[in-house]
Design goal:
The complex is a heterodimer.
Chain A lengths: L13 E2 L1 H19 L4 H17 L7 E2 H24 L6 H12 L4 H7 L3 H12 L3 H20 L8 H26 L13 H13 L2 H12 L4 H8 L3 H22 L1
Antiparallel strand pairs in A: 1-2
Chain B lengths: L2 H9 L4 H32 L11 H25 L5 H15 L16 H11 L3 H14 L4 H13 L3 H14 L5 H14 L3 H14 L4 H12 L1
Helix pairs in contact in B: 3-11, 4-9, 4-11, 5-6, 6-7, 7-8, 8-9, 9-10, 10-11
Chain lengths: 268, 234
């Protein structure tokens, strides 16, 4: 709680808190924007909050030395900044605004910001799995990689909200790892000597064949199949985008599926 | 992918629904794999991270990378100091220390252990600590330290109680005692709280020594330590 004494008289340099706010509010926001990485919106929010907190601690009709007001104000700014920083730390350094930018970019098929943020934190997640789950370096690497994929897809699908992304990510990585371990243990316990149950992944050979087949597909088929099967865009949405009927797009999709299969066989 | 499914796919043995499902699977798998390959390359090129344990990541590059992350994380915090009109590194460090202590109470896990094999005194102290009843926790802590000098954790939590109560001299005494006795547990933690104690005592040189240790370890609260160190160095 702020506890400083007001000045006795109304000297030319003394201010009420309202006067102080009116005089320095815009300037304070501009300074925060220009000297920190915060967006204008965030800087305004923080500055507003700080002035509110300042006003709550001072009788509004009293006059105060400007220097003292600044001293208290900067304490509040530091505190707010600290809280924001803590919140950002929990969210891989993302503010709420930058999180929205991330989502927007992902939906536009732009991975740049996602990669910049999440690949930077890859190692810490890998180490977390090694320490907390006794995972080997390779297993922790694979689990982190799979989590990245899963996390990105969930972000795109708006299934993840801002709050504590770091916690969510590491929890998810733990679950991905445990699930995989469980699968491995079951296979070992049963003692199957034939090929263990395959993961939903392409082996290298099939991947090469599929890539060759995919390369030979026409552009419209590639776009359609990718949008529908990978990005999960519903057919009616695709029909609207392509300015075609639902039935026509459905038919086109079936033809593309068959075409891909034919090319896959030819390249095998 | 199962071999059987691949064979069915190639032989055209799928129903329309099965073909649809399988196509979805392989297309998703293709794009996921492409993404993984891309990220694998990026991780190796930009972050020095490889999947294989045999490949050694250059130590200096890793540390440098972590150092940069630490700086990036604390940069916003530091910039506030630049924004503020009257610069005063001493008070910045003090504000930082106060903020930290107000916002982050260190948990005493003893309170959640059930306590059957833990002495009732220890449990009582942990409970008092968790309820922020530091005066009671201190009395119990003092008894514990007197009774069992081998359990250095009691000194650690006693030091913390004093710190939260702003009795800096005793906080320093018990946290230092813990640091001297225990060389395996709570190393970063004890040094961090000791650094906060020194900062609040305006003994910045000793605070810096503790903070440098934490920053070099790159473990618990190292980002906070870097941020505070920056203030103190200014």
């Amino acid at each position: 709680m702020i506890s400083i004494t007001p000045t006795l008289g109304n000297n030319a340099n003394d201010l009420t808190v309202d006067q102080f706010e009116n005089l320095y509010f815009e300037e304070a926001i501009k300074k925060v924007v220009s000297e920190t990485s915060l967006s204008f919106e965030e800087a305004r929010r923080i500055t507003t909050h700080c002035f509110q907190e300042l006003k709550a601690g001072f009788p509004l009709k009293e006059y105060w030395k400007e220097k003292k007001l600044w001293k208290e104000f900067r304490k509040i700014v530091l505190r707010q900044q600290y809280k924001l920083q803590k919140r950002m730390d929990k969210n891989f350094g993302l503010s709420e605004t930058s999180f929205k930018v991330l989502l927007k970019e992902l939906k536009e098929d732009n991975d740049t910001l996602f990669e910049k943020i999440f690949l930077t934190h890859f190692k810490s997640c890998q180490v977390y799995l090694q320490r907390n789950y006794n995972a080997s370096s390779e297993d922790a690497y694979d689990a982190t990689m799979n989590t990245l994929i899963e996390f990105q897809e969930r972000l795109k699908a708006d299934k993840i909200t801002y709050g504590n992304l770091r916690f969510l990510f590491t929890r998810m990585a733990g679950q991905v790892y445990l699930k995989w371990i469980k699968k491995e243990n079951i296979t070992t316990a049963i003692g199957e000597l034939d090929i263990p149950e395959a993961k939903e992944e392409l082996d290298e050979e099939s991947f090469m064949i599929l890539n060759k087949a995919w390369d030979k597909l026409c552009g419209s088929c590639k776009d359609l199949l990718k949008s529908f099967y990978y990005e999960g865009t519903p057919l009616n949405q695709l029909a609207e985008n392509l300015d075609k009927s639902h039935a026509a797009v459905r038919k086109q999709k079936q033809r593309c599926v068959e075409k891909l299969r034919d090319l896959f066989i030819k390249n095998t | 992918m199962k071999m059987k499914q691949l064979r069915q796919y190639k032989n055209g043995e799928f129903t329309e629904k099965e073909l649809d499902d399988f196509t979805r699977k392989i297309i998703r798998a293709k794009f996921r794999k492409e993404k993984k390959n891309k990220w694998t390359q990026q991780l190796e090129k930009d972050h020095g991270i490889t999947r294989s344990e045999k490949k050694i990541i250059p130590e200096d590059r890793t540390i440098f990378g972590k150092y940069l992350i630490g700086i990036a994380a604390s940069i916003v915090f530091i910039m506030v100091a630049l924004f503020v009109l009257q610069k005063n590194p001493t008070s910045d460090g003090l504000v930082f220390a106060d903020n930290y202590l107000q916002e982050n109470k260190f948990p005493n896990a003893t309170a959640t252990k059930g306590g059957e094999d833990i002495s009732s005194l220890e449990l009582k102290m942990a409970e008092a600590y968790s309820k922020d009843n530091f005066s009671e926790a201190i009395e119990l802590g003092k008894q514990l330290v007197a009774l069992d000098q081998t359990n250095s954790k009691n000194s650690f939590f006693l030091g913390l109680c004093y710190l939260y109560q702003e009795d800096l001299q005793n906080a320093q005494k018990y946290l230092s005692q813990f640091k001297e006795i225990n060389k395996t547990e709570f190393q970063e933690e004890s040094r961090w709280f000791l650094a906060l104690t020194y900062t609040k005592q305006k003994d910045f040189e000793n605070a810096k020594l503790e903070l440098e240790y934490i920053v070099n370890q790159q473990e618990w609260e190292f980002k906070q330590a870097e941020a505070l160190l920056k203030y103190l160095n200014e």
